[in-house]
Amino acid sequence: MSDILQSFREYRSRMNQKLMETDNKVIKRIMNLDTNTYKEGALDERTKEMLGLVASMVLRCDDCISYHLEQCHQLGISNEEMYEIFSVANLVGGTIVIPHTRRALEYWEALNKEKG
Amino acid sequence: MSDILQSFREYRSRMNQKLMETDNKVIKRIMNLDTNTYKEGALDERTKEMLGLVASMVLRCDDCISYHLEQCHQLGISNEEMYEIFSVANLVGGTIVIPHTRRALEYWEALNKEKG
Amino acid sequence: MSDILQSFREYRSRMNQKLMETDNKVIKRIMNLDTNTYKEGALDERTKEMLGLVASMVLRCDDCISYHLEQCHQLGISNEEMYEIFSVANLVGGTIVIPHTRRALEYWEALNKEKG
Amino acid sequence: MSDILQSFREYRSRMNQKLMETDNKVIKRIMNLDTNTYKEGALDERTKEMLGLVASMVLRCDDCISYHLEQCHQLGISNEEMYEIFSVANLVGGTIVIPHTRRALEYWEALNKEKG
Amino acid sequence: MSDILQSFREYRSRMNQKLMETDNKVIKRIMNLDTNTYKEGALDERTKEMLGLVASMVLRCDDCISYHLEQCHQLGISNEEMYEIFSVANLVGGTIVIPHTRRALEYWEALNKEKG
Amino acid sequence: MSDILQSFREYRSRMNQKLMETDNKVIKRIMNLDTNTYKEGALDERTKEMLGLVASMVLRCDDCISYHLEQCHQLGISNEEMYEIFSVANLVGGTIVIPHTRRALEYWEALNKEKG
């Protein structure tokens, strides 16, 4: 498994576990909401994950981007679709999004490689 | 026509005209890109406008929100779909997005009313 | 009642009602969390409202600021305490917070006047 | 005098006065620094005001933009120079800066008109 | 000493020293203000450090978070109080604050461990 | 060559190449605009690079900062001028810009050293 995939997944999973163990009710509810919001509803999961990704990109949160890239990859979003999400993020958010797009592309290619 | 629809459209159109008249090449190219990015490609226009909307919401740009609400409305996005876009924006961007969601909902209802 | 107090309260209350009526589960949960988070716990309500206020100031959300100013005022926070919250927000967030501080001070003085 | 010039100047001046009257030492120092930072040093005033303007634009603070537009206008910055500042801000900050650029252009034109 | 504590403290201290050596008056005044603002006044130091922390969290500045976590820890803020600060930051700032909260929790636990 | 210079330049160059290879028209146009915007026009290159730098600093994009530091260095901007750009960024953007200024200063000193 690629190093960037493994280190992101391992750290996120370990620390999310610790966040749940704080037993703070608000934090736990936000983390539960974070899962439920992307479930199929009037919009399908694919669209919702794309929305989560573009929002994370313009807000320039690398870890949030990695997480939604994983979800989008599992839901079968194609390279061409992904590059169009990148293009909206860079247009709306400006060139300060480019460095995050470089890292997003690297992560996306690692996901493509992992799947083989 | 609703006041909030009319005043937004009139001001945006008048000042965009003036921005083009500055004859600054970079500004003109950005404004052209702003139109082209949302054209159908690997993703359809509906999805792209939803992406533009959620990005505008988390970045809390009321005028950008109004513009993408107009596009989404013309493309036939339903109330339930719209509320799910709102929900992703509020989850990712936090409660500071709520005041913008209040104004977005008001604008959306004005668009519904206008269509009759 | 001051115009700025009345117009904020009336619009917020009317549109929050409409947001609840969308019947979107995520939106409703976020709005409920927004109330519960500031309830007394390990930290008292005063401290939590001050935290909500300073967060709103550095994120430059005028309506969020007005809301937390109302709560802080009801909880008896003094002028001197309020100005120190303003000072932290302006130091951490920079001079772009000054225009929001001008409006916050205007709102705060309207609350002082209303109380008489 | 144009309404947008007058209302900005009058409100800013009145509320800055009130901010100084809070007698909070940190707030007063920040406001003093805000004046001193733009004084000529290794960089001339023109360059510094341009820096203050572009920073205000990408951070999307309309009142900060208006203030630096006033300073730039007094220092004789030309229309073409101003449009290039706008172009950098829109490139770096993305299309969410466009609505602020519309308002900036309106304010700039009011300043041009006032000067006659 | 934990690696994350040591590397943050060492880098911050070394580079702050270099920032002071630039001998730029504005930078030096801002750094002095940064110390003075959190001194006891109408609000006590504990409250002010909590305000600084929540502001740093919603603005998603990891190094600023680490610094205020250090101060909060020295002032005896409890785990339960800390988790409530985290909860306000995540509510107001949204799920993009979660990755920063993961790192904040890791830093906080390192501080707890160091104290023994 | 300093490690921080080399690793930034190598990664940026390699991933920009990959971004161009996505063959997404919008991304390519934004990247081309990113080069053209800073070309001499009504404002000279020095001023434009300073504008790009201060915008990157207040938006707290470390990689964007490194890039514009490189450009400013090549254009002969002096240490004293650079520190004044830092001072504007920290004043406008607040103390959350300090950690980025620490890294900017480290990068700047590496550039000075490289030139010898």
Description:
- 6 copies of one chain form a homohexamer.
- Helix content of chain A is 78%, strand content 0%.
- The first copy, chain A, is mostly helical and 116 residues long.
- Chain A is globular and about 40 Å long.
- In chain A, helix 4 (62-74) runs parallel beside helix 6.
- The longest helix of chain A is centred in the N-terminal third of the chain and has 19 residues, at 3-21.
- Chain A has a single domain (3-115), classed as AhpD-like (Up-down Bundle), CATH 1.20.1290.
- The first copy, chain A, has 6 helices and no strands.
- The first copy, chain A, starts with a helix and ends with a helix.
- Chain A binds chain B through residues 33-34, 37-38, 41-43, 47-48, 50-52, 54-59, 64, 78, 80-81, 83-85, 87-89, 91-93, and chain B through 33-34, 37-38, 41-43, 47-48, 50-52, 54-59, 64, 78, 80-81, 83-85, 87-89, 91-93.
